[in-house]
Design goal:
Elements: H1 14-18, E1 40-44, E2 47-51, E3 58-60, H2 63-71, E4 78-82, H3 93-96, E5 101-103, H4 109-113, E6 119-122, H5 136-141, E7 146-148, H6 173-186, H7 190-208, E8 217-223, E9 229-230, H8 236-244, E10 247-248, H9 262-268, E11 272-277, H10 288-297, H11 305-308, E12 312-316, H12 325-339
Parallel strand pairs: 3-4, 3-6, 4-5, 6-7, 8-10, 8-11, 11-12
Antiparallel strand pairs: 1-2, 8-9
Family: Belongs to the bacterial solute-binding protein 8 family.
Protein name: ABC transporter substrate-binding protein
Domain Fe/B12 periplasmic-binding: 57-344
């Protein structure tokens, strides 16, 4: 990781990552029973899904889905992953290396079918919809049950692509916990699911309990230097902001990632900037160093208090997508604020 003065880098959460040993793939005994309760019917994002038996050949079509499955110790029942925005979580690297990566981005329908899947899961409605890998109906017609993360349909009226669009109500961690429990039930490993939820809750509560940042305002910059994508009120960034007691300067918009002007950001002048260090290189400002170079050289952004004071909080792009990584984002923001004197 590149170093900059007063930057709180992603590595600050290393201790938290190491603390997740109970959910490292392969460390939890297999508690699956003899498939009692199957066939299983589950209502998922408006679709009634039937799972005849616990999957043995699952494909995770987005990073968020893959990391939940890996955290549940399911690498031996996965035949493919796809659509990665960042390196896999450190504690899951060994397990992830055992699972074929079908594509860094969205795979074709044919590539997925070549794995002979008996189950597919995705984090975003856009992955299992028009313009995505395939419609859920296409998988269903072939006898392959599908699952979409409730984080991309709870409180939303339209399917999104990579968590864009507007929310009718704020996202909460309950949607993440529901996804964990649903997948654990589908794979007939409910005990592992409860253990993972307990760990996530514990980490969330520990971060919340040590920060008092009611005087802090934050802006979350994902990408693009010309008209930047900044987080609105109610997605994963909303969970992070609420957890540390701060204010998002764009909490007056329900769009998950509205594009705004730098003049508007200067007018609202956040205390600190949360910067996504993206592995992809498709837009100007994806990488951390390009973000900081732009901020400190542009005549508008150079006037921001956060830039003058180098108040940068670095997260992975995946930390700003609704998933188990949202807790990583909370911890990284909390670490930075604590170092700056906002401990409770």
């Amino acid at each position: 990781m590149r170093s900059f003065p007063l930057i709180i880098a992603t590595g600050l959460a290393a201790a938290a990552l190491a603390g997740c040993s109970a959910t490292e793939a392969g460390t939890i005994p297999d508690t699956a029973a003899d498939a009692a309760g199957f066939p299983m019917k589950i209502s998922n994002c408006g679709v009634e899904v039937t799972v005849d038996t616990p999957p043995q050949r699952a494909v995770a079509l987005n990073q968020g889905s893959a990391e939940i499955m890996l955290s549940l110790g399911l690498a031996d029942r996965m035949v493919g992953t796809a659509t990665w925005t960042d390196p896999v979580r450190e504690n899951l690297a060994a397990a992830n290396a055992k699972v074929p990566r079908l594509a860094d981005n969205a795979p074709s329908f044919e590539v997925v079918l070549d794995t002979e899947p008996d189950f597919v899961a995705a984090s975003f409605g856009g992955t299992l919809g028009p313009g995505g890998v395939a419609d859920r109906d296409q998988f269903a017609q072939l006898g392959v049950p599908s699952y979409q993360s409730p984080t991309d349909c709870d409180g939303k009226t339209d399917a999104s692509v990579n968590a864009d669009g507007a929310r009718t109500e704020p996202l909460t961690m309950d949607s993440v916990y529901k996804e964990v429990r649903d997948l654990a039930a589908i794979f007939d490993i409910r005990d592992r699911g409860e253990q993972l939820v307990t760990e996530l809750r514990g980490r969330h509560d520990a971060a919340v309990g040590r920060i008092a940042a009611q005087d802090v305002s934050l802006a979350y910059w994902f990408a693009d230097t010309s008209t930047p994508y900044m987080a609105g009120c109610c997605g994963s960034s909303g969970i992070i902001t609420d957890a540390v007691g701060a204010k998002n300067i764009f909490d007056d918009t329900t769009n998950e990632w509205p594009q705004v002007s730098w003049e508007t950001i200067l007018d609202r002048n956040p205390t600190a900037l949360v910067l996504a260090d993206l592995s992809r290189r498709s837009l100007a400002g994806d990488a951390l160093d390009s973000k900081i170079s732009f901020l400190e050289s542009n005549p508008v952004t150079a006037r921001l208090d956060a830039v003058r004071n180098k108040r940068y909080i670095v997260v992975n792009g995946a930390d700003l997508n609704p998933s188990i990584r949202t807790v990583d984002g909370i911890e990284k923001v909390a670490d930075a604020l604590e170092r700056w004197g906002y401990g409770s």
